[in-house]
Each structure stands twice: as C-alpha cells, then as structure tokens.
Amino acid sequence: MSSSYGQVLKDIEIGFLEGEKPVQEFLLKTFGVKTSNVGQKGQVAWDLEYGGLDTKVIKKLGLKSKPNRIEKRFVNKYGKTFEVKRDKASDRTGNMFYEVWSNIDVHSPGCINRSKADTIVLVRKSEFIFIDRGYFISWIMYNLYHDTELSRGWKKKTCRKIKNPKMKNSFVSPAVRGILIPLEDIKEEASIKVFKRTTK
Questions:
Q1: What is the C-alpha to C-alpha distance for residues 120 and 29, in angstroms, rounded to an integer?
Q2: Helix, strand or coil for residue 186?
Q3: pTM, rounded to two decimals
C-alpha cells in the first residue's frame, strides 16, 4: 500500500498542526524557548530546532536567573533539536510505536536510524513526554537484545526490561515496521520528563 503525494502532504500538515505547533507553543509558554520548524523542509534529521530565548516570556515566567544560565540549563537537559511524534494510538493503547523500518520491502530505515534529534517529544492528548533520544536508543537495544552477546555492552542498571518486546507492523502500512513500547515502562526512566497538557 503506497500513499499518494497528496496524502503525504496532508499527513505533514496534520503532523504540524497536532505535533510540532503544540510543542512549539508549550516550549515558549513553559520555558521561554523559541523554536523553528525545520522538519517540513525534509533536509534535516529532526523537526524543531532551538532558536533562543524570548526575554519577554522569561520575565512573565518570573525566572530570576540570567538568560544565559536559563539557556544553558535548558540546552543541557533537552538539547537543541527535537523529533516530534504525534501518536494518537498511544492515547488508546498506552503504547508508543517507534519506527525501525519506514519501508522494510526496500530496506528504508525508520526514525530509529534517521533521527539525529537530541530529544524525542511524544505528543499525547493529555501530556507531552520528553525523551532523551540517545539514552532511548540504548534502552531499546538493551530491551530487544537483552539476552544476547550483543547486549553485554549496553546493560545499565537503570534500564528496565520490556516484558515482551516485539517487532510490529504499523496500522498505516504493512511495510512500516517498529516496536511497541509500553509508556508505563519508559515513564519511570531518569531520562524521561512528562508534562501535563493544559489544553486539548
């Protein structure tokens, strides 16, 4: 099953309206951080890029630290680049689908390989989940290969095992493959931060 070009453009627009735009608004309102949407250009391996602080918002937030300290703390914690995922199914199932193959038939890698973002932001109806991508990839590898020779170097005391990690087909297309990750498993990890959404 292949999507038409028109459907791809529609999916990009929905992704922006339900994913990138709410995250941009949240980052500005909560941290005073401006971001630019670079993902629609298709040239970079992330969706949003850090664009500095909005000093008016920083004043409204009542933050006492100097702007360069606020910026340093934010960048140290979340980085400067963000991959935004709006996973509507996670609202129903409590699982996050993370793409390993965007098209397994032609060996086209998915987000797990293509994304170079510092942070993954999972957009759900009631929350934003900020996930350190580097740690998350190590965590996935450990969970998928935890009983193999390959995993010995990845084992960390902070990693919890997913009970039954399995590769799944996407409901969008059978050529899209990924893993289902129970959100309750990752929410307890140190590199995960959950923020409640106040609207929608």
A1: 19
A2: helix
A3: 0.79
> Does residue 190 register a pLDDT over 70?
no
Burial of 48 (0-12, 13-18, 19+ CB in 10 A): buried
In this structure, is the dihedral angle defined by the CA atoms of residues 34, 36, 37 and 43, taken in order, positive or negative?
Answer: negative
Q: Which residue has the tokens 């929410």?
A: 187
What six digits make up the tokens of 82? Answer: 């963000």
pLDDT of residue 4: 59
What residues have CB less than 8 Å from 55, skipping those under 6 apart? 32, 67
Smallest CA-to-CA distance from 139 within 96, 91, 88 is with: 96
Structure tokens at 95: 């699982």
Domain boundaries, the chain: 5-196
Q: Which residue has the higher pLDDT, 194 or 179?
A: 194
Give yes or no for a contact between 78 and 119, defined as CB atoms under 8 angstroms apart: yes
| Six token digits for residue 147 | 């009983």
The residue type at 34: K
